[in-house]
Design goal:
single chain, 250 residues, alpha/beta, Arc Repressor Mutant, subunit A, 2 domains, five-stranded parallel β-sheet, 9 helices, elongated, binds calcium ion
């Protein structure tokens, strides 16, 4: 875990200092921000390996920080920190592309477990941290691959898709969904399976979350979103990726 940088965006001074101290004890390099605006700027400039993002922040809310980060194409892993009873915020955060959440008050053990789990899930795809990538076993045939389909190029190194010569950046979730569909191309992948594999846990409120991400993914990979030819709906069950790679690709 050495050399990994965590940005803590938290306005409560004691909690911020406590998190910094404890994360540093765990071997992380820690930077802090006390409001949303500063947090967003630091996240965009410094490219941290993980962001711990409180949602209730002065100047700019955590959800707004997350939204702007994702809109500007940043795919940093983000763990949101929510208050008890704010389930709606939690869901909104996950839909905006947060990787996980912790609910206040949380213990250090729980937080560390979540940070490690998110880093495990994300480090193997993060090109910025090559030293970590080499230590991790690839999880499937598409890891790090560039795949060429008839009207679509998928680059799992850079998290991009290209259709009609236009390149689109994939969010982390979109890339994971696409990876799973392509790994099982020609087969049906259920929503439940996507939830388990892509999000890593099964307690999201509805499978609609999957559908929302699929809708966003389709805008990037389909020529006509109303008549998808790659990410095909299997009604009542899930999705299937349709396409045969061109010769010479895995
Ligand atoms: Ca706060």
């Amino acid at each position: 875990m050495n050399d990994l940088r965590i940005l803590v965006i938290e306005d409560e001074p004691d909690l911020r200092a406590g998190l910094q101290h404890n994360l540093e004890l765990e071997g992380f390099h820690v930077d802090v921000a006390a409001d949303g605006k500063t947090g967003l700027r630091k996240a965009q400039q410094d490219n941290p390996d993980l962001i711990l993002l409180d949602l209730m922040l002065p100047l700019m809310s955590g959800l707004e920080v997350l939204k702007q980060l994702r809109q500007s194409g940043h795919t940093h892993p983000v763990i949101i920190v929510t208050a008890k009873g704010m389930d709606r915020d939690k869901v909104a955060g996950l839909e905006l592309g947060a990787d996980d959440y912790v609910t206040k008050p949380f213990g250090l053990t729980e937080l560390m477990a979540r940070i490690r789990a998110v880093l495990r899930r994300t480090q193997r795809h993060t090109t910025e941290s090559m030293s970590q990538v080499t230590a991790v076993e690839p999880s499937g045939p598409t890891v790090g691959a560039v795949l060429q389909f008839r009207s679509l190029t998928v680059d799992f190194k850079r998290f991009t898709v290209t259709k009609n010569d236009a390149e689109h950046q994939l969010s982390r979730f979109e890339a994971e969904i696409l990876r799973m569909l392509i790994d099982h191309r020609g087969e049906v992948v259920t929503r439940q399976n996507l939830l388990r594999q892509v999000w890593g846990y099964v307690h999201l409120p509805t499978t609609r979350t999957v559908d929302n991400h699929i809708a966003r993914l389709r805008k990037k990979v389909e020529l006509d979103v109303d008549a998808p030819e790659h990410v095909v709906t299997v009604h009542g069950i899930g999705y299937r990726f349709e396409a045969t790679p061109l010769e010479g690709t895995p």
